[in-house]
Amino acid sequence: MAQQILNLPSDAQIWDWLDKVPDPEIPVVSVVDLGIVRNVAWEDNSLIVEITPTYSGCPATGVIALDIETALLKRGLDNIKIRSVLSPAWTTSWISQRGREKLKAYGIVPPVEGDTCAGMISLTGAKLAEIDCPRCESSDIERISQFGSTPCKASYRCKSCLEPFDYFKAL
């Protein structure tokens, strides 16, 4: 049954509902906090939700679209179209401040903007942006692997508390 124009939820209400859809790989942040949801708009009685994957080969993109559709269906919407928007490409600068705080509380260091090799030494010997352990806040860390549990993260270990942690790479 098509939504009646007078009974359509507001864009603000839809954004609020989408803010409750967790990212399938990092469930403490929502798809809104990550900046994956680009836009919501009504075209006639159809709700169009535009999403941008974090990278073009992200295996979670299909799951994210399905989770968004499922969340909106549960709210009584029945004419939903999910559109992938690839340009401009997603960037970590789209992660909200609240999302960055949630990542850190979860034990994942949020991205340092403009730095794809945080905590490393450049070819010229200059120290690049610093990251700290999300647990004890020590800067005495080491990179274990350029790739962590997902391609968008790198694995680090704190030399002070000896705990491993992920760093969400800046893109």
What's the helix and strand layout?
Elements: H1 11-18, E1 37-43, E2 46-51, H2 61-74, E3 80-84, H3 97-106, E4 108-109, E5 141-145, E6 153-158, E7 164-168
Parallel strand pairs: 2-3, 4-7
Antiparallel strand pairs: 1-2, 5-6, 6-7
What does this structure look like?
With 171 residues, the chain is of the alpha/beta class. It is 19% helix and 21% strand. It has three helices and seven strands. The chain has a four-stranded mixed sheet with strand order 4-7-6-5. The protein has a three-stranded mixed sheet with strand order 1-2-3, covered by helices on one side.
Give the termini separation.
Answer: 41 Å
**Percentage of helical residues?**
10-25%
* Number of separate strands: 7
Quaternary status: single chain
N to C succession of SSEs: HEEHEHEEEE
